[in-house]
């Protein structure tokens, strides 16, 4: 919640400085229903941004997974498919502990980044404000984000899955309920 408040405040400040319209919506995390409900309530109460209802959050993440599955079934290699790359990036953001943001204007301009990068960029807007006034918000933000290098990161992509050789049913050691099965891809640079 602290990250969301910092992000919303800083981003609204950037939009005001550039005199641009800005709409924000919180989409939560996949499979964190109770946590998302709690955060959604706080966001609405504090009027930080819009927030989708529970069903729309589920549909958002489900649709991304469906898009990835469809692209995979059609044999699309990630290297040659920008949509598949972006879908996998958003799904990887969901697997992280940090926030993330996507900024877009219609269908022609888009930039996305993980929470730490985007929040630090919003907070250091004075460093790229002049560029934003020359190029526009999204191109300037993209250029600024490209200049930030991550020496340390840990990215996880968690996908629902079922594969031979792995038990289909495993019970939770804490409560005994069946656990959901996922595949996780991880890249951690320390």
TrEMBL record:
It comes from the Eukaryota. Residues 1-188 form the Sieve element occlusion C-terminal domain. GO terms for biological process: phloem development. Pfam families: SEO_C. InterPro entries: SEO_C (IPR027944), SEOA (IPR039299). PANTHER family: PROTEIN SIEVE ELEMENT OCCLUSION B-LIKE (PTHR33232:SF12). This is Sieve element occlusion C-terminal domain-containing protein.
